[in-house]
Each structure stands twice: as C-alpha cells, then as structure tokens.
Specification:
Elements (H helix, E strand, L loop, with lengths): L1 H7 L3 E2 L4 H6 L4 E2 L3 E6 L5 H11 L12 E6 L6 H18 L10 H6 L1 E5 L3 H9 L1 H8 L2 E7 L3 H5 L4 H22 L2 E6 L1 E3 L14 E3 L2 H4 L5 E8 L2 E8 L6 E4 L1 E3 L2 E3 L30
Parallel strand pairs: 3-7, 3-10, 4-5, 4-6, 6-7
Antiparallel strand pairs: 1-2, 8-9, 10-11, 11-12, 13-14
Helix pairs in contact: 3-4
Length: about 290
C-alpha cells in the first residue's frame, strides 16, 4: 500500500501536449528514466528543451519548481528555442494568475535555471556523469537531467562492443540511482538506426528503424517513447511503461514549443493551419501555438 501511495503521489513534468501527458500518466515522471527515440527532425530536442522549461513551473501551478541539467552531445541545443518556450510559459502562468505576493517567473529566470554542458566525446560524457552527483547537490532542486543524445558518441567512437555495453549499463545504473535519490526525471534522447524487419521488441517503426544501442539498451529505461511520422504528422508511441498501456498519440511542434495538434480551420480563402514537415534546424510546424 505504501508503494501504491508513493506512485500515486509521484510528481510529473508536463509536456504541454495533453494527449502525450495523458498516455504518460500525467507527464514525464520524476524518479524514473524516460527515453525518447526518433529520427532526425521529429522533435526530440524540442521536447527535451520543453521539459527543461516546464520543470520550472511553480508549485502553485502544480509544477515541480526546479532546475534542469542539459548534457548536449551533438550541439543540438538551440538557445533561441529555449527562449521561445520560456516566454510562452511566462505568458501561460500570467494567464493563470499567481497567488498574491508571489514573485513572477521571467524568461530570464527560466533560462538561468537550465544548466548546460557540451560534451565532445564519450570520455567527456562519462566525466560529466561522474561529477553529476556533486553538480546536482551544488545546484539544488534539480528536477530533470537530459542527455541529448545518449547514443551519439557511443555509436561513433567504439569498436569494442563488450566495453561499450559495460559502460552503457554502468551509465544507466548511475542515472537510475540519481533519479531515485534526488527525485528527478532522467530524460534520454536516442537516435534510430536501421535493422532488418520491424525491430520487434525494440520499439521499431514501420520503416525498419529501431532505437540505437541495441536490444540490451532497450531494458535500461523505465519508459520508452518512439517518435515517428504518420501521414506527415508527428506521432508518439508509448512503447514501454510499467504502469500505462501502449498507445500512439499525435503532437505538434509550434513556435511556443510542444503542443496538441490543432485541427485545420478552413477560412473563406481555404487556408487552414496545415501541419508540414519542418526545416532541419527550427523544426516548427506551421500550426499556431
């Protein structure tokens, strides 16, 4: 009963896509490790940045009011997108109305609470993780640790697969321990790779793509979400979860960040909010926020 109570009271970081939050059980949970896999341009980094922003939602707005650590292995983090999302969050909170005497959250506050680390090799990645415990304790109130992407250096720099597996397993165990000890969400961004067939137990998609790092890595995360395209629309498949059923939902990337899909509204000119496949860097759908 005590474990059930803890699970029911567990805090989540919302994504601002209500359908994705619903299938995740309220958002990305604290004290667990969640992996988002997908092909380039699908919105993995956008989602990771959104979680770094949303982990700062105040307690009065049912948020976790914390800091974020972003470990960037590819140079994918875009400060301008973080600012877009921060400004949208501030506007959202202003609309809710803060309790009297509460200091308002500003976009500058939000950006200052995202602690960024750029790593250029698997050695640097492991070094950052080695010092992560001290970093979390120094910052205080860290609510999400993002690695974007977890696979990049381990796919490029390794020929010894036995060593790679051992290092990855050790990294996963360390991150799970930190998630539980500090009550934070660990969010891993993972790439996709080709494999014959559908990929079966790995969470493969219809194009024969499967999450990188192999079958054994598929057991590392508590939750795995596979992001993919369907009919030119972004979709999220909850592939692995200890408490929620497998389900696929749509989501959008807008100028304000991750949001629900908006159905096109036809005007006299016949111009609806059509969702298009985005450009490489900005990765924003044409649907409004």
């Amino acid at each position: 009963m005590e474990l059930l109570k803890v699970e029911r009271e567990r805090k989540h970081i919302v994504t601002f896509c209500s359908e994705l939050d619903r299938v995740l059980g309220g958002g990305v949970p604290l004290s667990k490790m969640t992996e988002f896999c997908g092909a380039p341009g699908i919105g993995k980094t956008q989602l990771a940045i959104q979680l770094c922003v949303n982990c700062q939602i105040p307690v009065w707005a049912d948020g976790t009011a914390g800091h974020a650590i972003y470990i960037d292995t590819e140079g994918s983090f875009v400060p301008e997108r973080a600012l877009d999302m921060a400004e949208a969050l501030v506007e959202h909170l202003q609309g809710l109305g803060a309790p009297p005497g509460t200091a308002p959250l500003t976009a500058t506050d939000v950006l200052s609470r995202i602690h960024y680390f750029r790593v250029h090799s698997y050695v640097e990645q492991l070094a950052v993780l080695h010092s992560l415990e001290a970093t979390i304790e120094s910052i205080g109130s860290v609510r999400v640790v993002v690695i974007d992407s977890v696979a990049f250096h381990f796919r490029r720099d390794f020929e010894d697969m036995v060593l790679r597996t051992r290092l990855l397993n050790g990294m996963a165990q360390t991150l799970l321990r930190f998630a539980a000890r500090f009550e934070l969400a660990v969010v891993l961004v993972n790439q996709m790779t080709t494999k014959g067939g559908r990929g079966g137990g790995s969470g493969g998609d219809a194009h024969g793509l499967v999450p990188a790092l192999g079958e054994s890595w598929g057991h590392a995360s508590t939750i795995r979400v596979v992001l993919h395209w369907r009919n030119n629309q972004r979709m999220a498949l909850l592939y692995k979860s200890p408490s929620m059923q497998e389900e696929t939902v749509g989501y959008a990337v807008t100028t304000a960040g991750i949001r629900d899909i908006e159905q096109p509204e036809q005007t006299d000119g016949g111009q609806g909010a059509v969702v298009e496949r985005p450009g490489k860097r900005l990765r924003v759908d044409t649907a409004s926020a």
